Amino acid sequence: MSGGDVDRGAGDDLMDKVVNLCKRRGFVYQSAEIYGGFRSAYDYGPLGVLLLRNVKDAWWRTMVQLRTDVVGLDASILSPPEVWEASGHLTNFTDPLVDCRNCGMRFRADQLEDPDVCPSCGARGQFTEAREFNLMFRTQAGPVAGAGADVYLRPETAQGMFINFANVLNTVRNKPPFGIAQIGKSFRNEITPGNFIFRTREFEQMEMEFFVPPDEATKWFEYWCGARMDWYTELGIPADKLRLRPHDADELSHYSAGTADVEYLFPWGWGELEGIANRTDYDLTQHAQHSGVDLEYYDQQADERYRPHVIEPAAGATRTMMAFLLAAFDTEEVRGETRTVLRLHPRLAPYKAAVLPLSKKPELQSVCEEVLGLLQPRWMTDYDVTQSIGRRYRRQDEIGTPYCVTVDFDSLEDRAVTVRDRDTMDQDRVPIEGLAEHLDAKLGL
Ligand code: ATP
């Protein structure tokens, strides 16, 4: 685990604006806000649930749908201790924890700007010795508490793929190189959650384990580093705010023969979006030894048996959503007013279009219904009748809707609507009959 997300500075302004927009427009709310807020978790509102889903769908599309060598999985969140014993998490999944003797606050030792000074009260030399703190949440399964009932909330989705390796191999026709992908919630009892949804105790991951013949591991590691960088830039992360940072030898996880992090330039500095690791045959070997189940692949053609090596691109869905929001946020002066625009890639935008009647008069309603009937089956479409058309455009700009479709009184005569482009603000008159095709071509999904 790498640190670096405590100090904030120059970019606070952008951060505040985005956090504010998230609350105001219903992307992200503090969890349990009516009870004073639960700091380490967030709830995704009407817009956030769409954006997060689109981030996950975009990942799934690239990693599973458009490939013939990757299949999906959805494994359980609760798992018995044996899994985490074998994976090494029970002993190794720890962060160094220090307490300040002066104020009682706790910190991750490797994230302190000055290892001697408490960032909360400023006391010097008051930290306890660092001790290893395990990040896994433990709970009990079944009605009887006590021995044998301990279970863990998964701290990563990856192990689900390893323990199902044999199941998947027996049910699909793929042979190495092939991958198993999963999107889902993970839980880590982070010592210092923070920076909005960057580090939370409950979050979502998008992980893929790519099983390869051992002598192809290096080649595939490089391939996935390149492919994953492309995914972010194609969806609108500017190349100068993205970098691939190889881990130093002393930073490598216990299982890794090589790791590179995809990092985004957050307002407070570079932060990890995704780790791409060459996990060797560590996990399959561990699970084979602990379970007694053979986790090798038999290559019939070569009459050869081997334990595949694994390349793992492991990304965070919620953290990535935050990077997309920060990268998309823009303001500009238009006719003496500040316009806020979320320049989200159309694939990520919560709504692809908004239908806006120029007036609330009932004559326009049936045309609006007709237009909604054309668009809703294809895309998430907003419908907004309140306030002036100018304010409604601004609202759609702020939530990143690529196209507004305005129905006016002329629409009753010419059977056409006005389509306004979020980025250029250009307006086109488009026949209702060809509207869906027109938007389809413009969106280019
Ligand atoms: P970090 O160094 O930031 O703690 P990590 O190296 O432990 O992250 P991985 O175990 O590689 O993270 O997990 C893969 C991805 O899952 C990360 O790149 C990140 O996007 C996401 N992730 C990990 N921990 C959290 C968290 N507490 N909150 C939100 N996302 C997280």
What descriptive keywords fit this protein?
single chain; 445 residues; alpha+beta; BirA Bifunctional Protein, domain 2; Rossmann fold; 2 domains; 7-stranded mixed sheet; 5-stranded mixed sheet; 13 helices; 30% strand; globular; disordered N terminus; binds adenosine-5'-triphosphate
Total number of distinct structural domains = 2
- State the helix count: 13
What structural class do helix, strand and pairing data support? Answer: alpha+beta
Give the radius of gyration.
Answer: 25 Å
Named once each, the bound ligands are: adenosine-5'-triphosphate
Quote the CATH topology of the largest domain: BirA Bifunctional Protein, domain 2
Distance between the termini: 35 Å
Shape: globular
Classified by CATH, the class of the largest domain is: Alpha Beta
Bin the helical content: 25-40%
pLDDT average, as an integer?
94
State the low-pLDDT regions, or none.
Answer: 1-10
A few lines on this structure:
With about 450 residues, this protein is of the alpha+beta class.
Fold and architecture overview:
This protein has 445 residues and is an alpha+beta fold. It folds into two domains: 12-78 and 158-326, BirA Bifunctional Protein, domain 2 (2-Layer Sandwich); 351-443, Rossmann fold (3-Layer(aba) Sandwich), CATH 3.40.50. It is built from 13 helices and 24 strands. The chain has a seven-stranded mixed β-sheet with strand order 3-10-11-17-14-13-12. A five-stranded mixed β-sheet has the order 21-20-22-23-24, with helices on both faces. Helix 2 packs across helix 9 (317-328) and helix 3 crosses helix 8 (282-291). The longest helix has 20 residues, at 46-65. It is globular, with a radius of gyration of 25 Å.
